[in-house]
Amino acid sequence: MRILIKNIRSLVQVEDIPQVKVQGSKMKELNTINDAWLAIENDTIVGFGKMEEWEGISDWSNLTIIDASDKIVMPCYCDSHTHVVYAGSREGEFVDRINGLSYEQIFERGGGILNSAKRLADASEEELIESALKRLNEIMWQGTGAVEIKSGYGLSTETELKMLRVIKKLKERSPLTIKSTFLGAHAVPANLKGDRKKYIDIIINEMMPKIAEEKLADYCDVFCEQNYFTKEETIEILSAAKKYNMIPKVHAEQLSNYGGVLAGVEVGAISVDHLEFVGDKEIEALKGSVTMPTILPGAAFFLSLPLPPARKMIDAGLAVAVASDYNPGSSPSGNMNFMLSLCCVQYKMTPEEAINAATINSAYAMNLSDTHGSIAIGKKANVFITQEIPNYSFIPYSFGSNLIETVIINGKVMSK
Length: 416
What we know:
15 helices
């Protein structure tokens, strides 16, 4: 199967020499070819350039031609932080927050993560698969081509394994590239409240061996926060996870400055996510590390939290990634186009910085830089074509709109 996209108004995020990430002032640069063509064979990008340099077609067999006049072509977004496997929504808590309750107060009443854990325990694997596939199709049509999915609504060996097995089956059923994350340390289950040490022992000595045996997780994550897990406990859990070949990630500095970033840097985490309460010490620690700071604008927006200092991090020379945090409690949207709008409007990131954050940098946060996140020869043919729009800045400008007309995943034009 071959695809030729021709007469492209702007082919965005092209690379002759692929980079693993873009940082600092380089994030303001976005390599674009106007009046361009793009060639795909099977599931791979095999060529691109300016129309005036196009040599034409000698072999028309098994070829699909798409005319993208006045349209933008971009690499699909990489969403490196989601919780799309869940049972039931939490709009009641949304109303509770409107009425003045905090995230912590809702949690103490048995809401939040504990609410989702209770619902998930009652759901079958097939129910979880079917509902998650609907969400994955939704975000695919909003431009996402690769997604990380976390467990963490299980909070027991049986249900954490159930979640991870569901994610494994989603990898087989969905056309999207999916990475799985073990997030048993999302909260302490209600039946072990006050005995965090015992639950950590279960995570390390009971859950992790079984997860490793079935090869269910690419990453291990910890919610490092007051009333959840300390910096020292985060390091303990993630150090153990590395022995089982799970790469560390951290939910860090979302509700307070609690040591999550420092823990992540110490254990070599691929990313630290949220970052609402990051300070100068954390920014300095991230410099020269392998760890990608990842902002989750949907969660900060939905919970009315302080904004992570994205502008300050970029100006300090760091790379920054953006992800949706799609989940039922704090960010019930996986629309990466909307995340771009929030980056530009609230975080004062340029459209170029926002697109770099949602493509090549978020690909890095999923260990996918070699195959995803940009238009480069040899990379996966995961791209989308917009409607007729003037330029790529029109995407974050048109907040709330889905301007994507065609989605190509692994070299196949997706059909609704």
